[in-house]
Sequence to fold (326 residues):
Amino acid sequence: MYKYLIIVFLLIISKVPASEQVDVNDLLNKLQENQKNYAAYSATSVITSEIKKEQETYFSRRETVIFIDGERIDFRNHQWRNLKSKDQATPLEDADFRSFLWDGSSFYYYTKLDKYDCSLNITSNSDDKIEFLSTGYEGTPLIGIFNGDQIPVYSILRKAKTISLREQLEKIGESKCYVINAVTDHGEYTVWIDPEHGYNIAKAEVSKKKGDIHLGKPLSWMGDTTGLGYRSEIVPLSGYSFNLLNVRFEKINSVWVPVEADYETTLDYGGRITKAKTHHKQTHTDLNPDFKSLKAFIPDIPDGTQVYKNDSPGTKYIWLDGKPVM
Fold:
């Protein structure tokens, strides 16, 4: 009789959908655990975008490299903007260059738009590091920080107003995924978590409306003046959506890592719509880089560059021998 009851119990358990046997908190813990994979991390990427704004369509291309060691960030970005087609040639000499470096105490923002237009801003404000991660590097959705957010998605979902797990697993590609639905202060989130690829995010949909948090502030703080000419009116952002799609994973050092994906972003400025489709592909990923040999976290600024220091406004500096001098 005892053996019979055990068999019946096991049969009942086997029929329960897997999503009912997993707690939402367990999934959020796994997302948080994934962040540890990027404690020492570098990635080289190619990012292409198609942007549609009213009747205008243009393209951009970025070639980037990023180093992260948990505290410091070193990012370098060549960018070709306002391309007429996705196949337009992009010689290196035509690219804008930007680099962002947080070395643990100071933030260095270097721009070079052409050989005569270059400058360096230095600040000790650590908030610039947070702002950079949410707006400067377009690879953050692959490591769990979505466009429009400044903190990991697991942190947002932990504070959700309502959160639930769909009863059935849903197939994304060849994987069966858990699906979380949540309403948060940052908007509405649907996140597909792939247990076959290290419990990474395989797909996500985010929708924000008036009052929701966007880049750390209420959505409407962000405004658009494009096409207004001399008018002083600023049209506030009234709606925003972000979709993460077609995520591809690779196993690196026995760890499943997302290395390629598509992003779809829509911004609604009171009926004036801007849509962007972005493809992000990492061409090299290292979960244990040799930062010293890569010369990461060291300012690489040409001598003679004009320097602006936020703590010394009005004082003129130039960069010379690895430091700003008066």
Summary: The first helix runs from residue 2 to 15.
